[in-house]
Design a protein that fits this description.
This protein has 433 residues and is mainly alpha-helical. It has helices at 14-21, 24-29, 32-48, 54-72, 85-97, 110-146, 166-191, 210-216, 226-262, 289-301, 304-312, 326-348, 368-377, 382-394, 417-429; strands at residues 151-156, 159-165, 193-194, 221-222, 269-270, 352-353. The protein has a two-stranded antiparallel ribbon with strand order 1-2. The structure holds arginine.
Length: 433
Amino acid sequence: MTKQLWNKGFEPDKMIERFTVGNDRELDLRLARYDVLGSIAHIKMLCKIGLLTEEELSRLVPALEDILHSIESGEFTIEDGVEDVHSQVEFILTERLGDIGKKIHSGRSRNDQVLVDLKLFFRDELKRISEAVNRLFTRLQSLSEEHRDKLMPGYTHLQVAMPSSFGLWFGAYAESLTDDMQMVVAAYNIANQNPLGSAAGYGSSFPLDREMTTELLGFSNPHYNVVAAQMSRGKTERAVAAAIASVASTLGHLAMDVCMWMCNNFGFVSFPDELTTGSSIMPHKKNPDVFEIMRGKCNRLQSLPNELTILTANLPLGYNRDLQLMKDIVFPATDELVDCLDMADFMLSHIRIKENILDDPRYDYIFTVEDVNRMVVEGTPFRDAYKKVGMAVQEKRYKPTREVHHTHLGSIGNPANERIADKMTLLLKKMGK
Ligand code: ARG
């Protein structure tokens, strides 16, 4: 026997139910606690505007809190035949409280219910992501300080270019994460608006107090226009996906660097044996599978905005069931990203750095600009100094002085890590009250 909130006396075809519900029940379990929190705020508001009595409210709230406990203890399930979390919660209430349970849906629709759930869920997920980003950020900053003076080659066109350092390399990824954090904060701000009261997407003839539910749910403001509130389904997910993709692009890039620096031809970094993987045929192999999987996962995560854009492009205004499919794209992605961030943090806590890399004669030419600049300081015009050093290289008589003296803001000798940390602190403060 199927149980639909919209049951009007006919039994919908089983095939239709399977196809339209899909794996939505499992995905909805992640929304369950937010659904209950949304309902508690909604019924408090219904009581204030006279659609529920104080007595009814005093029976409904504990019953909803009970459901909340069952969700937190992992006992809550969405039964077979029940379409979604919104229906399940209403069924439980009606089962336990009879007619009172049937009153809670006044002035709302599953359309604004799922919207509220998603906004609350994304707020928490974005906070979780920001915490994981910050853990990796802190690791990178401390590695940057620890290896501040260890030089490594800098490349352009993948050709040896100029001296760089492990301090700059680690510090660069830390600062790059602050740019990603701007995207996380932007997504958070878009999610942090209350759609409740938009009902099916066009509001209600009840005098709903939307300021009250906004306050109760801790949103920064209502999504005022009810149609805009419904339009935020899709828009919010795309903002979240853009933030995820932004972090993933930084992390994927870092993973690629590690794979390359671990390559025997570079050999700049290594990891303890137990953090590497082997080959079934080549006994000597110590492979960087962790960073390869990370690179692959991060590349996939970067396709999220695209996937969502294609799924939602040209949908008509108002609710459309296609929107349900976004959960399947975004929900696993937040877990995947946090997993990758934590894995990167773990691996980097064990990274080993090769010292004195630039003493190898293969990097002799990396010092040409240092030598040109020294001549400039001593009075030679830049182009003349460039020519002199260039000719010495060309005629194979160039001998590097191997002295690196970079002092300006953000350079090898002055990576400005404290200022970068300030940027991150400021951004983290914007995540939640
Ligand atoms: N599972 C649905 C979703 O995610 C809930 C909303 C259903 N609304 C409707 N009008 N069928 O979109």
